[in-house]
Write a structure and sequence with these properties.
It is built from 14 helices and 10 strands. It is an alpha+beta fold. Helix 4 packs antiparallel against helix 5 and helix 11 packs antiparallel against helix 13.
Length: 359
Amino acid sequence: MLVNKNEKVFLIVKEIISNIATTKKYKIMREQQANTGNTSIIKNLEFSLFYDKSKGIFTTTPKQQITFNRLIEIYTSDFVKHITDKIQLAPKEHKQDLKKQLPFITPYGTFEPTRKKDNLEFFNNSLIALDIDDVETSEAEEIKDILSNNSSTLLTVISPRKKGVKALILINDTIPFKECYNTLKLNKKRIAEALNISKYKENIDNAQFNVTQPLFIAYDKEIYYNFEAEPLDIKLEVYQEPIIERQSITSVPLHAQNRIEAYLINATSKLEQFFACCSEGNRHANIIKVQAISSWLHYAPQIENDIKQRLYNACCSMYGNEKEALRNGVKRAFEQAWNTHPKANNSIESIINELNCVA
């Protein structure tokens, strides 16, 4: 029976979500898995695996939950190598579309039923995911070399474009789930210093500190991973949520990376403007309006933290300052409205369908 190319790729994908056979070993891999406390921590790590080549980064429903061992099997699989090779050989204008064919994980834990912060089921609270981007190929090789020689590095690979490095770092401190993003962003300089990559601090992408942020799996023939990684000795500074005395509505939007983000950011700006004009008698009743935007953020969970903070600030601004807002129960009303189920948005679905047609 003849199998066309699309069917062949589909069959190869099954390798990811079923039984992946690891056939290659690398000299830089530390193969011995001694029964140490560190190994136990590593064995307990869990990730959600996502794959939908029609949606790519916008995939929100996980295929399955995987361990670190399985993650390495996927990294070294023939399927991932096949797609990575295609990305590297493709013209620049086609690379981003091909990237959608790669699987990705959420390094900070597992999600069910969808990739949304409120749906986090298991949190890897002693793991830092790093995405160091926009560097030269020689710099990427230097960063990877530095991290490969650090005993706390669990995994490090160079991206398909050879312009970035991704890494998983084990630490001996505990990251608070609710403030994961803010804590790691606050401690970025400290983390870079501890890993001896201070000169690349500005290249560390803050977005990777979001618990919902994808980490794409791409092939690197010299992948480094260490089953005996030792937690990095670092004490994270505790993030303290600031009390907002007065928060004006910003006219400068977030920088959208794509049309879906642009749609959500625009909707946020319009709601901010509405709150700014809201009369005193209608303030509290209108907080429920944030629920719609919250229900659409499953399309772009990577900007959820920023959108949520902006809308909370806008709600507080209706009362003059956060102290007055807290006295009027704004925080509780806001959280109740925000914690909603994902819903479809026809405009966003149209954007996705249009992009798929173009692809």
